[in-house]
Design a protein that fits this description.
The chain is α/β, with parallel strands linked by helices. It has two domains: 156 residues, Lyase, Ornithine Decarboxylase, Chain A, domain 1 (Beta Barrel); 210 residues, Alpha-Beta Barrel (TIM Barrel), CATH 3.20.20.10. It has twelve helices and 19 strands. The strands form three sheets. Strands 4, 13, 14, 15, 16, 17, 18 and 19 form an eight-stranded mixed beta sheet that branches. Helix 5 links the parallel strand 7 and strand 8. It is elongated and about 70 Å long. The structure holds pyridoxal-5'-phosphate. Pyridoxal-5'-phosphate binds next to helix 11.
C-alpha cells in the first residue's frame, strides 16, 4: 500500500484473486482453489476465522505421504530399513497417535519425557529409538526401566553409568563422524565437522567406549550419527563423506547389526530450492552400506512434518517507517523460531490474496525483539487489517519449540485428517 496504512475501506469485491504465477511452494494438497488457500480439503482462511489466530494447522495425511515416499525410496534400493519420526520436530499428541496407529514408523526421542510422551501416544517400546545428550544420572535411571527401547549413548560417561546400572544389555553408540552437513552449508545447522561439538564419541575415543562396554558386558549392536539438518541435493556429496567416515567405526565393532544415519533431510524453503531427490539420496546410502548386512535406520523430523503444517496469523497493521513498509502479524517468532535462529524462512502467504496493487513488506510479529521478523522486502498483494496470512513450512520445529516470551505463546492447534 502506497501510503502505508491498511486499506480498511476496500470492498470484498476486491477478492478473490488468482495469482498469475504459480507459487513455488504450491503442490497437490497445498495451493489456491478459487482464490482461497487450501491445505488438503481445508480452506485455511475459514479455519482461521473459526478457531482464531494464531493457529498451527497440520495435515496428518501429508506426514504419512512423506513417510511413504521415503520408504519407497529405501525399498527401491533394496535397503533393509527402519524409520523413526524425530518427535522433537512435532510432538502434537494427536499427530503422534495417528502415526503410531498407522504403524508406518517408530519414534526417535531425546529425553525421558519424550519417551513417556511417545509411549502415551501409542508407540511401542520396541519402536522407540533414544538418542539424547548431556545425560545425567536421573535420565539414565529412567532409561534403565525400558529395556526394549533402543538407546544410543553419545558420551563415555553415559555409557559407563548405564553399564553399571544395566550390565549385559545391548546398546548403541552415537559417534561423531567429524564431518558435517546442513542447509546451504549453514554452520549452525551442522552437528559435527566444523570444530569439536558436543554430539557423539569421536574416533580417537572409540577404544575407551569398547573397553567400557566390555567391562559391563554391554553389546554394541548399533552406531548412530546425525551430522546436521536441512540438507538437499546440493549437499548429497557431503552426505556421502559423512557415511564413508562411519566405516572407521563400523570396522571396529563386530557385533553391529544397525547403522542409524540420523535425520537432517531438508525441504525447500525458498523459490530456488528443489525438493530432495530421494532416489539419489537412497542410492548414496546404498552405495555406502551395500553388502554390509546392516539394517539402516533413519530418523527424520523436518522431512516428514515441516511442509505438512502452517501457522495462521492475522494482519494487525501496516505502517511505513523510513522507507520500509512494515506489516504486523499477531504471531511472533516465538511460535516458529527457525526463521530467526537458523535462517530457514516460513514464507508469509495470504490465505485469500487480494486483487489490485502489490506491496513489498517487512513482515513482523508481536514480540518485543528486533529479530522478530518473518520476511524482509517480501512482495504481497496489499492486505487489509484482519486478513489471514499463512506462514508455510511451520509443521516442524514450530509448535515443539514454541516459547511464552512476552506471554505471546497462546496459540490454537488444528489437526487435519483429510
Ligand atoms: C539425534 C537427532 N536425530 C534426528 C533429528 C531430526 O533432525 P531433522 O528434523 O533435521 O530430520 C535431530 C535433530 O536435531 C537429532 O538431533
Amino acid at each position: 500500500m502506497s501510503d502505508g496504512t491498511v486499506a480498511e475501506n476496500a470492498t470484498d469485491a476486491d477478492s478473490p484473486f488468482a495469482p498469475t504465477i504459480e507459487p513455488w511452494w504450491q503442490r497437490d494438497d497445498l495451493g489456491y482453489r478459487e482464490g482461497r488457500l487450501h491445505l488438503g480439503t481445508a480452506d485455511l482462511d475459514a479455519v482461521a476465522r473459526r478457531v482464531g489466530t494464531p493457529a498451527y494447522v497440520i495435515r496428518a495425511p501429508r506426514v504419512a505421504e512423506n513417510l511413504r515416499r521415503l520408504q519407497a525410496a529405501l525399498d527401491g534400493e533394496g535397503l533393509d530399513h527402519r524409520i523413526y519420526f524425530a518427535i522433537k520436530a512435532n510432538r502434537t499428541p494427536q499427530l503422534l497417535s495417528y502415526l503410531a496407529a498407522q504403524g508406518l514408523c517408530g519414534a526417535d526421542i531425546c529425553s525421558p519425557d519424550e519417551l513417556l510422551h511417545a509411549l502415551a501416544c501409542g508407540f511401542r517400546e520396541e519402536d522407540i529409538s533414544f538418542t539424547g545428550t548431556s545425560l545425567g544420572a536421573a535420565d539414565i535411571e529412567v532409561l534403565s526401566r525400558f529395556e526394549k527401547v533402543r538407546i544410543n549413548f553419545d558420551s563415555l560417561s553415559a555409557l559407563r553409568r548405564y553399564g553399571r546400572l544395566c550390565p549385559g544389555r545391548e546398546v548403541g553408540l552415537r559417534i561423531n563422524p567429524d564431518r558435517g552437513i546442513g542447509y546451504t552449508g549453514n554452520d549452525m545447522l551442522q552437528y559435527s565437522g566444523i570444530e569439536a561439538t558436543k554430539f557423539g564419541i569421536y574416533l580417537d575415543r572409540l577404544p575407551e567406549a569398547i573397553e567400557i562396554a566390555r567391562e559391563h558386558r554391554l553389546k554394541i549392536t548399533r552406531i548412530h550419527f546425525h551430522a546436521g539438518c536441512g540438507y538437499l541435493d546440493r549437499e548429497l556429496e557431503q552426505l556421502a563423506e559423512v557415511l564413508a567416515s562411519s566405516h572407521s567405526f563400523i570396522d571396529q565393532l563386530p557385533d553391529l547389526s544397525e547403522v542409524n544415519i540420523g535425520g537432517g533431510l531438508g525441504v525447500p524453503h525458498r523459490a530456488d530450492d528443489r525438493p530432495l531427490d530421494l532416489g539419489r539420496w537412497a542410492k548414496t546410502i546404498a552405495d555406502a552400506f551395500r553388502g554390509s548386512g546392516l539394517t539402516l535406520a533413519v530418523e527424520p523430523g523436518d522431512y516428514l512434518a515441516k511442509d505438512a503444517g502452517v501457522l495462521l496469523a492475522s494482519v494487525t497493521y501496516s505502517e511505513r517507517r523510513k522507507d520500509v513498509e512494515f506489516l504486523g502479524l499477531d504471531a511472533g517468532f516465538n511460535l516458529a523460531m527457525e526463521p530467526a535462529f537458523y535462517g530457514l524462512p516460513c514464507e508469509p502467504v495470504p490465505t485469500v490474496p487480494r486483487s489490485g496493487p502489490t506491496g513489498r513488506y517487512t513482515v513482523v510479529g508481536n514480540v518485543n525483539e528486533a529479530l522478530d521478523k518473518w520476511a524482509v522486502d517480501h512482495p504481497m498483494p496489499v492486505p487489509r487489517d484482519g486478513d489471514v496470512i499463512a506462514l508455510i513450512n511451520a509443521g516442524g520445529y514450530a509448535a515443539s519449540m514454541r516459547s511464552d516470551h512476552c506471554l505471546r505463546g497462546s496459540v490454537r492447534e488444528v489437526l487435519l485428517l483429510d
